[in-house]
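hey so u asked for the seq, here:
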Amino acid sequence: MLSGDFKLVERCLQGDDAAWEMVVNSYGRRIHNVSYRYTSRRDEAEDLTQDIFIRVYQNLKSYHSEAGSLQNWILRIARNLVIDRYRQSRRFQPIGGSEELEAMNISDDKAPNPQRAAEQVEASKFLQDGLQALPPELKEAIILRDLEGMAYQQIADLLGIPEGTVKSRISRGRLELARLLLKRRAQTGLQV
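ran it, structure tokens below
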């Protein structure tokens, strides 16, 4: 696969539009999902995704297959841009709505009644707000593991930290998220 990654990058560097389209199609959804999880806003996630792919394209010459897979290299770029965006906009408070429900793909086997649909929207917003309140390194670990489904070793490779640190951050993040959600539930009386 790594030699395939290298060949794909080489084709992109030679100006092969089909190769670049293959890169965008292969990784676009995952990058958009990561962007959305961090921004909680569809329009900002689309902008961030576009910025990430621009940065990927501008830095293709620096990709070396010996350093790891193309996916991890692209996710590292995405992570760095997300962190930069976070630092620039710490004061920003996300606005919730029905978009979170769509992004989380919450569904029942049968069509939910209107009350259940409203509860799902509120539960989704509740979770998104909790994630936004976590420290960035804990939020990142939880998003990559629990929402993106990445393996511990993949996360360790992506973040450039030991696997034990990844597990520790995920554990601490889950505990902190549970604490935040319980506290918020007690304050609002919401049953989620």
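Residues 91-111 have pLDDT under 50 and may be disordered. The two ends are 43 Å apart (CA to CA).
lmk if thats what u needed
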